Amino acid sequence: MGRNFLRLPNVSGRSSFAYSIVACSNLPKRRSIVLSFGHIMTENMTLEQLSANKCFEGEQRVYRHRSGTLNCDMTFGVFLPPAALEGKPCPVLFFLSGLTCTHENFIQKSGFQQHAARHNLIVVNPDTSPRGVEIAGQDDAYDFGSGAGFYVDAKKEPWSKHYKMYSYVTQELVDVVNANLPVVPGRRGIFGHSMGGHGALISALKNPGLYQSVSAFAPIANPAECPWGQKAFAGYLGSNPDDWAQWDATHLVSQYESTPQELFIDQGAADNFLAGKQLLPENLLAAADGNDHIQTIFKQREGYDHSYFYIATFVAEHIAYHAALLTPSA
């Protein structure tokens, strides 16, 4: 086993830390990483490449690693544009998927790669919940448990041991990406769909400055007031409405007082979940109208539903929007 010790750059938006890498030369495209964050040590965190496919002169990869936040193995996708494959630092854009999805849906159905390649954006998309854990009832429903982590940090047992998707997305995954990919410090965006749109919105609103751009396809914009959100919040957080509010984008928008934030909200007009009052974008827009610190772009797409056909139609527009904010020359 060969040992290579590297000095990696500090992570923008996080406290300064130093760390070293122990490389396993006998395992192709696999690195065992030991990170030292001040006095905190995360041991045996591995980043294992599971696949790589050439795509629009870039490369679509899938990685697996051990998450200390979720206490399980997690898989995520990474698209490296041509510039990144040449070793040039690029901005990074995170995509959060919706209910029932894994990392595979966005990779295989959206067609985002050609647009990310054009704008030289690295795109990272994680899974939607912890996997491979043993919790009774986690597979009983499509809208709670497996595939439905709702990007919150669970407070209730038994979920609180594993279901901390918010901290995973906004902290651990950001650190893993910054430590292992050629990203530009401080050039980071986030977007998502449905439950993932909710996740993107709250991640940006709860962390001013962490993301320089944010957008959402058909987000669950006011989960404390819709059946999907109420079920998830009660199960993960408990019955206290004050605990729900801090994970609700509409409430966060109404209370937001930090650096001015622009939110790009996209909605299909023929979305059956819009008609079924699961999404409630009108509540978020009303809250934003009363807050000078929040600016919104709202686009309603006539005839489009909640599916990946809708996402594939408009993903180029979203990626161009993020590129314009993350790449000065775009």
Automatic annotation (TrEMBL):
The active site is at S194, D271, H306. Gene3D superfamilies: alpha/beta hydrolase. It holds the Pfam family Esterase. The keyword Ribosomal protein does not apply. Its EC number is 3.1.2.12. InterPro entries: AB_hydrolase_fold (IPR029058), Esterase-like (IPR000801), S-formylglutathione_hydrol (IPR014186). One of its GO terms (biological process) is formaldehyde catabolic process. One of its GO terms (molecular function) is carboxylic ester hydrolase activity. It catalyses: S-formylglutathione + H2O = formate + glutathione + H(+). Belongs to the esterase D family. PANTHER family: S-FORMYLGLUTATHIONE HYDROLASE. This is S-formylglutathione hydrolase. The lineage of its organism: Eukaryota, Metazoa, Ecdysozoa, Arthropoda, Hexapoda. The gene is Dyak\GE25088.
